Amino acid sequence: MEIAKKAIRIGALIAVSPLVILYWLLRPVSREDSLFAGFSQTMSLFPGLLGSYLRIAFYRCAMSHCASDSYIGFGTLFSHRDTELHSGIYIGPQCNIGLSAIHRNCLLGSGVHLLSGKNQHRFDDPDTPVRLQGGEFTKISLGENTWVGNGAIIMANIGRDCIIGAGTVVTNDIPPGSIVAGNPGKVVRSRYAESTQGATT
Protein backbone atom coordinates (compact mmCIF):
# COMPACT_ATOMS: atom_id res chain seq x y z
CA MET A 1 0.00 0.00 0.00
CA GLU A 2 2.78 2.46 0.90
CA ILE A 3 4.56 1.67 -2.36
CA ALA A 4 1.36 2.43 -4.30
CA LYS A 5 0.88 5.71 -2.42
CA LYS A 6 4.46 6.72 -3.11
CA ALA A 7 3.98 5.98 -6.81
CA ILE A 8 0.79 8.10 -6.88
CA ARG A 9 2.59 10.97 -5.14
CA ILE A 10 5.40 10.87 -7.69
CA GLY A 11 2.84 10.78 -10.52
CA ALA A 12 0.97 13.74 -9.00
CA LEU A 13 4.20 15.72 -8.72
CA ILE A 14 4.97 15.07 -12.39
CA ALA A 15 1.41 16.09 -13.34
CA VAL A 16 1.56 19.45 -11.52
CA SER A 17 5.18 20.22 -12.47
CA PRO A 18 4.17 22.62 -15.31
CA LEU A 19 2.10 24.64 -12.83
CA VAL A 20 4.92 24.57 -10.28
CA ILE A 21 7.40 25.84 -12.88
CA LEU A 22 5.00 28.59 -13.99
CA TYR A 23 4.44 29.59 -10.36
CA TRP A 24 8.17 29.93 -9.66
CA LEU A 25 8.73 31.85 -12.89
CA LEU A 26 6.01 34.36 -11.96
CA ARG A 27 7.09 34.86 -8.33
CA PRO A 28 9.77 37.52 -9.03
CA VAL A 29 7.30 39.75 -10.89
CA SER A 30 4.19 39.18 -8.75
CA ARG A 31 2.84 39.92 -5.29
CA GLU A 32 3.68 36.67 -3.57
CA ASP A 33 0.45 35.96 -1.67
CA SER A 34 -1.76 37.16 -4.52
CA LEU A 35 0.04 34.84 -6.92
CA PHE A 36 -0.15 31.95 -4.47
CA ALA A 37 -3.88 32.52 -3.87
CA GLY A 38 -4.53 32.54 -7.62
CA PHE A 39 -2.81 29.21 -8.10
CA SER A 40 -4.66 27.87 -5.06
CA GLN A 41 -7.96 28.67 -6.77
CA THR A 42 -6.88 26.59 -9.76
CA MET A 43 -5.68 23.69 -7.59
CA SER A 44 -8.95 23.66 -5.62
CA LEU A 45 -10.95 22.58 -8.70
CA PHE A 46 -9.61 19.03 -9.08
CA PRO A 47 -12.18 16.59 -7.63
CA GLY A 48 -11.85 13.44 -5.55
CA LEU A 49 -8.90 11.72 -3.93
CA LEU A 50 -6.77 12.34 -7.01
CA GLY A 51 -7.45 16.05 -6.57
CA SER A 52 -6.07 15.90 -3.05
CA TYR A 53 -2.89 14.19 -4.29
CA LEU A 54 -2.46 16.92 -6.92
CA ARG A 55 -2.99 19.68 -4.36
CA ILE A 56 -0.53 18.14 -1.92
CA ALA A 57 2.06 17.80 -4.69
CA PHE A 58 1.71 21.45 -5.66
CA TYR A 59 1.69 22.81 -2.09
CA ARG A 60 4.76 20.78 -1.17
CA CYS A 61 6.59 22.89 -3.78
CA ALA A 62 4.87 26.22 -3.13
CA MET A 63 3.96 26.37 0.57
CA SER A 64 6.25 26.86 3.59
CA HIS A 65 5.55 23.32 4.74
CA CYS A 66 3.15 20.64 3.49
CA ALA A 67 3.34 17.02 4.63
CA SER A 68 2.82 14.37 1.98
CA ASP A 69 0.34 12.30 4.04
CA SER A 70 -2.37 14.95 4.48
CA TYR A 71 -5.72 15.32 2.69
CA ILE A 72 -7.10 18.56 1.22
CA GLY A 73 -10.71 18.49 0.06
CA PHE A 74 -12.28 19.87 -3.12
CA GLY A 75 -12.81 23.63 -3.24
CA THR A 76 -10.46 24.44 -0.36
CA LEU A 77 -8.57 27.71 -0.82
CA PHE A 78 -5.33 28.97 0.71
CA SER A 79 -4.41 32.66 0.74
CA HIS A 80 -0.84 32.75 2.14
CA ARG A 81 2.27 30.89 1.04
CA ASP A 82 3.67 30.92 4.60
CA THR A 83 1.15 28.28 5.69
CA GLU A 84 2.17 25.03 7.37
CA LEU A 85 0.33 21.74 6.92
CA HIS A 86 1.84 19.08 9.13
CA SER A 87 1.54 15.29 9.05
CA GLY A 88 -1.74 13.39 9.11
CA ILE A 89 -4.17 16.32 8.79
CA TYR A 90 -7.56 16.25 7.06
CA ILE A 91 -9.06 19.42 5.57
CA GLY A 92 -12.62 19.01 4.36
CA PRO A 93 -14.14 20.50 1.20
CA GLN A 94 -14.74 24.22 0.69
CA CYS A 95 -12.55 25.47 3.53
CA ASN A 96 -10.86 28.87 3.43
CA ILE A 97 -7.45 28.79 5.06
CA GLY A 98 -5.55 31.98 5.90
CA LEU A 99 -2.07 32.43 7.37
CA SER A 100 -1.75 29.47 9.72
CA ALA A 101 0.14 26.48 11.08
CA ILE A 102 -2.05 23.36 11.24
CA HIS A 103 -0.26 20.77 13.34
CA ARG A 104 -0.21 16.98 13.29
CA ASN A 105 -3.43 14.95 13.13
CA CYS A 106 -5.82 17.92 12.99
CA LEU A 107 -9.25 17.43 11.40
CA LEU A 108 -11.16 20.28 9.77
CA GLY A 109 -14.75 19.71 8.67
CA SER A 110 -16.40 21.22 5.61
CA GLY A 111 -16.59 24.98 5.18
CA VAL A 112 -14.19 25.90 7.99
CA HIS A 113 -12.77 29.42 7.79
CA LEU A 114 -9.36 29.93 9.35
CA LEU A 115 -8.68 33.66 9.31
CA SER A 116 -5.28 35.36 9.55
CA GLY A 117 -6.07 36.67 13.03
CA LYS A 118 -8.81 39.09 14.00
CA ASN A 119 -7.15 42.36 12.94
CA GLN A 120 -7.05 41.91 9.18
CA HIS A 121 -9.00 45.12 8.63
CA ARG A 122 -8.72 48.42 10.51
CA PHE A 123 -11.80 50.61 10.70
CA ASP A 124 -10.81 53.40 13.12
CA ASP A 125 -11.20 56.26 10.64
CA PRO A 126 -14.85 56.72 9.58
CA ASP A 127 -13.77 59.08 6.79
CA THR A 128 -11.59 56.49 5.05
CA PRO A 129 -12.97 53.41 3.28
CA VAL A 130 -12.26 50.26 5.26
CA ARG A 131 -10.51 48.72 2.26
CA LEU A 132 -7.90 51.52 2.39
CA GLN A 133 -7.15 51.36 6.13
CA GLY A 134 -4.94 48.30 6.00
CA GLY A 135 -4.66 45.68 8.68
CA GLU A 136 -2.45 43.07 10.28
CA PHE A 137 -2.07 39.41 9.32
CA THR A 138 -1.31 37.09 12.23
CA LYS A 139 -0.25 33.47 11.85
CA ILE A 140 -2.81 31.28 13.64
CA SER A 141 -1.86 27.94 15.18
CA LEU A 142 -4.08 24.86 15.41
CA GLY A 143 -2.57 22.54 17.99
CA GLU A 144 -1.94 18.87 17.39
CA ASN A 145 -4.93 16.49 17.40
CA THR A 146 -7.55 19.23 17.24
CA TRP A 147 -10.93 18.66 15.57
CA VAL A 148 -12.79 21.66 14.08
CA GLY A 149 -16.44 21.09 13.16
CA ASN A 150 -18.23 22.17 9.98
CA GLY A 151 -18.61 25.89 9.36
CA ALA A 152 -16.48 27.04 12.30
CA ILE A 153 -14.66 30.38 12.04
CA ILE A 154 -11.27 30.55 13.75
CA MET A 155 -9.52 33.89 14.44
CA ALA A 156 -7.19 32.89 17.29
CA ASN A 157 -4.81 30.15 18.40
CA ILE A 158 -6.20 26.75 19.36
CA GLY A 159 -4.28 24.51 21.78
CA ARG A 160 -3.67 20.82 21.19
CA ASP A 161 -6.34 18.15 21.74
CA CYS A 162 -9.25 20.60 21.38
CA ILE A 163 -12.71 20.06 19.90
CA ILE A 164 -14.33 23.08 18.25
CA GLY A 165 -18.06 22.62 17.69
CA ALA A 166 -19.72 23.12 14.31
CA GLY A 167 -20.50 26.77 13.63
CA THR A 168 -18.37 28.03 16.52
CA VAL A 169 -16.70 31.43 16.18
CA VAL A 170 -13.36 31.53 18.01
CA THR A 171 -12.10 35.06 18.73
CA ASN A 172 -9.70 34.40 21.63
CA ASP A 173 -6.93 31.87 22.24
CA ILE A 174 -8.17 28.48 23.45
CA PRO A 175 -6.20 26.41 26.01
CA PRO A 176 -5.23 22.79 25.28
CA GLY A 177 -7.82 20.07 25.78
CA SER A 178 -10.81 22.41 25.54
CA ILE A 179 -14.24 21.66 24.09
CA VAL A 180 -15.54 24.91 22.62
CA ALA A 181 -18.97 25.91 21.28
CA GLY A 182 -21.03 29.01 20.52
CA ASN A 183 -20.68 32.50 19.08
CA PRO A 184 -18.45 33.81 20.47
CA GLY A 185 -16.84 30.47 21.30
CA LYS A 186 -16.74 29.51 24.98
CA VAL A 187 -14.96 26.64 26.68
CA VAL A 188 -17.75 24.34 27.87
CA ARG A 189 -15.50 21.73 29.44
CA SER A 190 -12.02 20.22 29.40
CA ARG A 191 -11.15 16.87 27.85
CA TYR A 192 -8.24 16.57 30.26
CA ALA A 193 -10.52 16.88 33.30
CA GLU A 194 -12.79 14.17 31.89
CA SER A 195 -9.87 11.79 31.33
CA THR A 196 -8.61 12.43 34.88
CA GLN A 197 -12.01 11.67 36.34
CA GLY A 198 -12.20 8.47 34.31
CA ALA A 199 -8.82 7.37 35.61
CA THR A 200 -9.82 7.90 39.25
CA THR A 201 -13.22 6.15 39.18
From TrEMBL:
GO molecular function: transferase activity
Top-level taxon of origin: Bacteria
Keywords, sorted A to Z: Membrane, Transferase, Transmembrane, Transmembrane helix
Keyword Nucleotide-binding listed: no
Membrane-spanning ranges: 7-26, 38-58
PANTHER family the record matches: LIPOPOLYSACCHARIDE BIOSYNTHESIS O-ACETYL TRANSFERASE WBBJ-RELATED, SIALIC ACID SYNTHASE-RELATED
Protein name listed in UniProt: O-acetyltransferase
